[in-house]
Design a protein that fits this description.
Layout: H1 22-27, E1 33-35, E2 38-40, H2 43-62, H3 73-79, H4 85-98, H5 103-109, H6 115-126, H7 139-142, H8 148-154, E3 156-162, E4 167-172, H9 178-188, E5 191-196, H10 199-210, E6 217-222, H11 226-239, E7 244-250, E8 253-259, E9 264-270
Parallel strand pairs: 4-5, 6-9
Antiparallel strand pairs: 1-2, 3-4, 7-8, 8-9
C-alpha cells in the first residue's frame, strides 16, 4: 500500500510485537500502513488501531445529547410579534394532542406563521445566519465533499467553501447537528460554520443531489463489530493503494475516507441502533 521508506519509522501501535533494534530497522526496507497520519508496520497493527478508533467513535455515539438551553421558539415568535398568545396556545395544544411535532411546524399548519418566518426565528435561536438556497446553487459543488447518505441523515448541505481559509459553511433545516459538524471538521481538516435554510428549499436541494452522479462512495452495509469493519477497511485501502485512512462518523454511520495520491474514496458503515452500544469496551 505504501512504498518502502528511506528513513526509520516506529510503529504507532503500543502493543506492536515487531519493535526492532535500530540497526535491523536501517538494514530492512520499511513497508507500512497509515491511519490518521500515524504509521503502522503490519496489517495487524493497522487493523487493531482502526478497531480501537471505531470503538471510541461508537462510544461517543452512544452518549445521549446534551439538554438544550435555548429560548423556546414559540416564545421568541411571540416576543417578536409574529404570533399572538392564542395562536401559540393552539399550536402547543395541537402538538400535545398529536404526541409530537415541532412547534414551528404546528404554527405553520394553523396558518399563524410562514416557513420563512419560522426559519428566521430558528436563526435567532441558534445565533446562525439563514442561507438563501433559492438564490445560490453553489452547493452542487460543495456537497460533493461529503457522502450523500450523511447529508441526508443529518438533513444538511455544505453551501459555501473557502479553500484559502479552509472554512466550510453548512446549512441545516430545523436543527444544527453539532456531531455532524465535528465529523466534517475532523475528516476535511476545515473549520465549519453552521447556518440555516428554509427546510423545503433544503429538501429540494437534497433531491437535486440525490440525482447527481457520485463515483467515490462505497456502502459497506450494516456492521457493528469493530474488528470486522477494520478488516474491511484494510482490504479496501490495500486494493486502492491508499496513502492514508481517516475515520469519523455520526448519527449511526461510521465514515471512512481512503486517500490516494490523486483521489479519495468514502466507505460508509451503517450501525444498527440495537447493536451500536455493545462495543464500549475500550480496553480490548
Amino acid at each position: 500500500m505504501i512504498k518502502p521508506e528511506l528513513f526509520v519509522r516506529n510503529c504507532e501501535f503500543p502493543d506492536c510485537p515487531n519493535h526492532r533494534g535500530l540497526w535491523r530497522s536501517l538494514l530492512e526496507p520499511q513497508h507500512g500502513y497509515t491511519l490518521e497520519g500515524r504509521w503502522y508496520c503490519t496489517p495487524e497493527c493497522f487493523e487493531n488501531s482502526a478497531a480501537l478508533a471505531i470503538r471510541k467513535l461508537l462510544a461517543g455515539m452512544a452518549k445521549p445529547p446534551g439538554k438544550s438551553h435555548r429560548i423556546p421558539l414559540g416564545l421568541l415568535m411571540l416576543s417578536r410579534g409574529i404570533v399572538d398568545q392564542e395562536q401559540l396556545k393552539r399550536a402547543l395544544q395541537a402538538q400535545k394532542d398529536s404526541g409530537g411535532g415541532r412547534v414551528g411546524e404546528w404554527l405553520r399548519h394553523i396558518g399563524a406563521a410562514s416557513e420563512e418566518q419560522v426559519t428566521q426565528i430558528l436563526g435567532l435561536q441558534y445565533s446562525a445566519a439563514v442561507f438563501p438556497l433559492e438564490r445560490s446553487r453553489r452547493y452542487l459543488d460543495c456537497a460533493q465533499m461529503v457522502p450523500f447518505l450523511l447529508l441526508e441523515a443529518a438533513e444538511m448541505i455544505p453551501v459555501h467553501h473557502l479553500p484559502a481559509s479552509r472554512h466550510l459553511y453548512v446549512a441545516f433545516g430545523d436543527r444544527i447537528n453539532h456531531s455532524a459538524l465535528y465529523a466534517l471538521e475532523k475528516m476535511l481538516a476545515c473549520r465549519t460554520e453552521p447556518c440555516l435554510a428554509v427546510k423545503s428549499q433544503l429538501q429540494k436541494a437534497l433531491e437535486d443531489l440525490r440525482n447527481a452522479p457520485r463515483e467515490t462512495e462505497v456502502l459497506g452495509g450494516e456492521a457493528s463489530d469493530p474488528e470486522e469493519m477494520a478488516g474491511t477497511i484494510f482490504d479496501h485501502a490495500e486494493s486502492q493503494s491508499s496513502t492514508d485512512v481517516k475515520i469519523s462518523g455520526f448519527d449511526g454511520f461510521v465514515w471512512v475516507r481512503l486517500i490516494s495520491p490523486r483521489t479519495h474514496t468514502d466507505l460508509l458503515f451503517r450501525i444498527p441502533k440495537k447493536t451500536s452500544v455493545i462495543t464500549m469496551d475500550l480496553t480490548r
